[in-house]
Design a protein that fits this description.
The structure holds 2 protein chains of 2 kinds.
Chain A (H helix, E strand, L loop, with lengths): L1 H23 L3 H25 L7 H23 L1 H4 L1 H4 L7 H28 L12 H24 L3 H15 L11 H7 L3 H15 L5 H25 L3 H4 L1
Chain B lengths: L2 E15 L6 H9 L5 E15 L3 E5 L6 H9 L6 E6 L3 E4 L12 H11 L4 H15 L14 H13 L5 E5 L7 H16 L3 E5 L3 H7 L2 E6 L2 E6 L1 H12 L4 H9 L8 H5 L2
Parallel strand pairs in B: 3-7, 3-8, 5-6, 6-7
Antiparallel strand pairs in B: 1-2, 1-4, 8-9
């Protein structure tokens, strides 16, 4: 494994560079835009939900932002990852390289995006006078889970996209559904306990909830909560690895 | 002499049919109406050859003979359905030259990316870069987007990257016909240099003259089967007459090299 990393380290950095230049088209504005776009979504949501629905929850902007942040990272990463195999077909049908490299390099740029937006979240939190505590360190946990979960989902989706070229549209429908089920702009406290538990079956909601617990409530979630979060990530990764292993030499027939 | 590449009884089953570029909806519809067909055929049947240091093998055969599929198995992009391939050295492959480059990146960025794909280290690439650009004669185009290059320039770059690094196994698929006359001469010269340094080269070309000129051994594939392999002059002569419509040449070659008829060694020794 370590030998492999060494062997492909150069290729990996070159792929990251390529994806980065292509994504931002060599402009500063390109990078600014990728941060600006989630901010605009946030602004619209805030306008709609705090004014029209007369929401007067404390720190509502942060509540909204943390949900939007996690969800945007998930959709950005999975949508980019989906293309990882198909758009690199001309490479892996000619040269024998590990196919997950393409996917990981795509994920580096979405992770950087996420990082930039996260800085903004902290900035907003400071402006909104949210109390910063040492517990913020724990945010690393859901972030790591989320990275692993996104990579796993990306593997599954990119493989599916090789086989079925209409996956993009189907995935668009699924993400919309997930968005409504992730309580990004509403709270679920008014629901019964049972329904609140059902929400935790959605990994994205679980990671969002973790963020809010730390930032807004200043409390660390239970051990079970941690285990569930890790389980989602590891299951996604295991499935993804399985699909890549199984179809490693099949992909080239489909592209 | 050291054996660098050993291909033993390799067969490759190829898959084709309705599964390409299909959507989930279409797939479901076809499954329901039972019009979803996937078929298999043997693209390469029981081919064996062994190459030693300094060998240059030319692979000839008409379209669909299995040349490219065989090369893909040698590079490890495809896995043989049966048989075994032993590689003792680093492979540098040029399959369909200009593909795999990215039009939006500059020539320099593409050179680095391609070098990385071929398994070079960063240090090596840094050291070899100037040499590569000089050989490809693209010094003035370094910072231009790749898509602005002509196809000849693109192939020149690809050839330079793959050949300037002293690979132990070099695979060339229809690439020597790139560039103008002057560059062709230069690349042929470079090839000879690589061969003399002890590398093994596999060349696939539709130009029989080129193969005759360069190769020390020839493998003739027909519908996935090895018709003949060995002496360049003899086989090329038969192949040329086969191309002119003389089907007798195929039988003649088959009779002369009986071990290559898709018959395994065991079958031969057993009678």
């Amino acid at each position: 494994m370590i030998e492999k990393i060494k062997q492909y380290h150069f290729l990996f950095t070159e792929l990251v560079k390529r994806d980065f230049t292509k994504k931002y088209k060599r402009t500063v504005l390109g990078m600014a835009w990728s941060v600006l776009s989630p901010m605009l979504t946030l602004l619209i949501m805030w306008l709609v939900f705090s004014n029209f629905f007369a929401n007067n929850m404390k720190h509502y902007v942060i509540y909204l932002f943390s949900g939007q942040l996690v969800f945007a990272y998930f959709t950005d990463s999975t949508n980019l990852s989906m293309n990882a195999l198909v758009s690199n077909a001309s490479i892996f049908t000619k040269v024998n390289v590990p196919k997950y490299l393409f996917l990981l390099s795509q994920n580096v740029s979405s992770l950087i995006n996420f990082g930039l937006t996260l800085v903004l979240l902290f900035l907003f939190s400071a402006i909104d006078r949210v109390a910063f505590t040492w517990k913020f360190i724990f945010l690393l946990y859901p972030i790591i889970c989320l990275v692993v979960f996104n990579v796993g989902m990306g593997m599954i989706l990119s493989a599916f996209f090789v086989f079925f070229r209409d996956m993009q549209y189907l995935w668009g429908v699924v993400t919309t559904l997930l968005m409504w089920m992730s309580a990004i702009f509403y709270t679920i406290e008014t629901f019964s306990y049972k329904i609140q538990l059902i929400f935790l079956a959605n990994p994205i909601y679980l990671y969002i909830r973790y963020f809010r617990k730390i930032i807004l409530e200043g409390s660390i979630p239970t051990v079970q909560f941690h285990l569930l979060g890790a389980a989602y990530a590891l299951i996604a990764l295991a499935l993804g690895t399985y699909v890549y292993r199984k179809y490693n030499h099949e992909f080239l027939y489909y592209v | 002499m050291r054996s660098v590449l050993k291909v033993e009884n390799v067969s490759i089953r190829y898959k084709y049919g309705d599964f390409r570029d299909i959507g989930l909806k279409e797939w479901a519809m076809r499954k329901m109406t039972h019009s979803y067909r996937v078929e298999h055929f043997m693209a390469v049947k029981n081919v064996s050859f062994e190459l030693f240091e300094g060998d240059m093998l030319g692979i000839i055969g008409s379209n669909g003979a299995g040349k490219s599929t065989l090369l893909k198995a040698v590079t490890g992009v495809m896995v043989p359905t049966s048989g075994n391939i032993e590689r003792n050295g680093r492979i540098s492959a040029l399959l369909e030259l200009a593909s795999g480059f990215d039009g939006d990146l500059t020539v320099k960025e593409n050179a680095y990316l391609r070098g990385a794909m071929l398994g070079y280290t960063k240090k090596f690439m840094k050291a070899a870069y100037d040499q590569i650009i000089d050989f490809a004669e693209l010094k003035d185009f370094e910072e231009r987007p790749f898509k602005q290059l002509s196809s000849g320039m693109q192939s020149r770059l690809a050839f330079s990257i793959a050949s300037l690094v002293q690979p132990e196994i070099l695979i060339l698929d229809e690439v020597l016909s790139v560039g103008d006359g002057a560059f062709q001469e230069k690349s042929s010269k470079k090839m000879m240099e690589i061969i003399r340094s002890g590398a093994v080269t596999i060349l696939v070309s539709h130009s029989v003259e080129q193969i005759e000129k360069l190769c020390t051994k020839v493998l003739w594939l027909n519908h996935g089967e090895a018709v003949a392999q060995g002496d360049t002059k003899e086989i090329c002569a038969l192949y040329k007459s086969f191309l002119k419509g003389n089907t007798e040449a195929l039988n003649k070659a088959a009779a002369k090299w009986p071990g290559n008829q898709g018959v395994t060694q065991e079958e031969l020794t057993n009678g």
